[in-house]
Amino acid sequence: MRSSSVTETEKETRFAYYLDLTSYKQEITQSIAKYFQFAPMPKPPFPVALLVLLISSAPNTADGAISVLCNGNHYTAGDPFAISLAYVFSDLAVSGSARPGQDYYNISPYPNAFAYGHSSCSGNLTAGDCSYCLRLGVGIVNISCPMAIGGRAALGDCGVRYEQYPFV
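Above: the chain sequence. Below: its structure as C-alpha cells.
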C-alpha cells in the first residue's frame, strides 16, 4: 500500500511552483497593463472587475479582441489540482510557442490531480510574438477564472485552454 505522506522534496517542489505562479501572476498583470497601454495600477480588491474594465476599454480589433470563458466548478485551497495547473500554465506559456505549427497540447505529470492544457497561435506570428501572446492569455485566464477547474482565453492571434478533464 502506498504511503499518503508528502516528502520534504515534494513539499519544496510544491512551494517552488506556488512561488513561481505567484511571481508569474504579477508579471502577467504588468504585461496586461502594458498590452493595453495602461500604467500599472495597485492591485484592486476584485481583479475580475479590473479585467472587465480593461476589456471594455480596449478597441475591438483582431489584435485586442478577448473572449474569456470559465468552468463553473471550482477546486478548493490545498487541492493538488493547483500544482498541476501551475505546471500546465508554465508549460503552455513556455513550450507552446516552440512547437511546430504553434498548436500544443499538454498534461500535468502529477497523477493525484491531472490538469490538461492547449495553446495555439496563428501561423503569422513569430515564436517570440506567439510566446508573448500565450503568456498574456495564460495570465488573463488565470486572473479571470480564479480556482476554476477549467477556463479559456481567446485573443486575436492566440488562445489558451485548461480543464480538469481531457479534451481535444
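The beta strands are 67-70, 103-107, 116-121, 150-154, 158-163.
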